[in-house]
Amino acid sequence: MQLPAILIEDLVRAALKEDLGHGLDITSASVVPYDAQSRAVFKAREEGVLAGLIFGLSAFSHIDSDLSFDVYAQDGEVLEAGDTIAAIEGPAASILMAERVALNFMTHLSGIASLTRRYVLAVQGTDARIADTRKTLPGLRAVQKYAVRAGGGFNHRHGLDDCILIKDNHIAMAGGIASVLSRAKENAGHTVKIEIEVDTLDQLEQVLSHGGADIVMFDNFDIPTLKKGVEMAKGKIITEASGGVTLHTVREIAETGVEYISSGALTHSAPQMDIGLDIE
């Protein structure tokens, strides 16, 4: 469960440049003695799943190569309130300069991982897997989807180029389900999956009759209709439910027998996990 170093560095550098402006932390430069040394520790202030630690440590190492680290937790680990995550030691002003960027990455990504874990636990004992969507912040999709994996979830497609996902507007523009599936099958490479969204059981029947899709997405189905759709599709096509998925509804959705449940809330509505950096 790793991310390419170049991706981490690019995002951390951009965040540091944004925060440093003209290159000076005027508060620390004004009040912290130049030769002051310090030790600071990241601590979880609530229960949650850690994600994005490498971004936090990278922020410090980009600011000052003289800083040293002790790491006590890893991404994907479930933390309790009070658990120590990592310690940073070295020039005090450098620690303060990188603090906010480090915490911004860690609290946001850990928040996504923690929310994902709650969804995963909510469907425990069923066959359903929790998946994300493309409803991510611009520029942060890869890392937000990484955080979903850290929380025990699965990734849906990463972009428009790695899976054919036919939605209602595609069906309308291409002349119907049979037409759109035929076109997709004709143009898809042998390694590309074809998924199609359906709004009704009649549409599902058309999809199953055609046979050109690998996955069917039930969009905003109520529970009785979803259960019937899953029964119709069982053994013929991979099933996914989407739309209206919350922590309050996800268990009932999973109990229909659907194989995947996708939710944009994992990335667009996850609250930050409370993590602090305390000076020892």
Give the helices and strands, then pairings.
Elements: H1 5-20, H2 26-31, E1 37-44, E2 48-49, H3 53-63, E3 68-71, E4 78-79, E5 84-91, H4 92-122, E6 129-131, H5 141-150, E7 164-166, H6 168-174, H7 177-187, E8 194-198, H8 201-210, E9 215-219, H9 223-233, E10 238-242, H10 250-254, E11 260-262, H11 265-268, E12 275-279
Parallel strand pairs: 6-11, 7-8, 8-9, 9-10, 10-11
Antiparallel strand pairs: 1-5, 1-12, 2-4, 3-5
CATH architecture of the largest domain: Alpha-Beta Barrel
Specify the helix fraction band: 40-55%
Q: What class would the helix/strand composition place it in?
A: alpha/beta
Q: How many domains make up the 3D coordinates?
A: 2
Please name the fourth-level CATH homologous superfamily of the largest domain: Aldolase class I
Tally of DSSP helical segments: 11
Calculate the mean pLDDT score and round it.
Answer: 96
Strand content: 15-25%
Low-pLDDT residue spans = none
Question: How far is it from the N-terminal to the C-terminal residue, by CA?
Answer: 31 Å
Reported by name, the CATH topology of the largest domain is TIM Barrel
Along the chain, the helix and strand elements come as: HHEEHEEEHEHEHHEHEHEHEHE
Outline type: elongated
Number of separate strands: 12
Query: Gyration radius, to the nearest Å?
Result: 23 Å
The largest β sheet comes out as: 6 strands, parallel
Spatial sequence of strands, sheet with the most strands:
6-11-10-9-8-7
CATH class of the largest domain: Alpha Beta
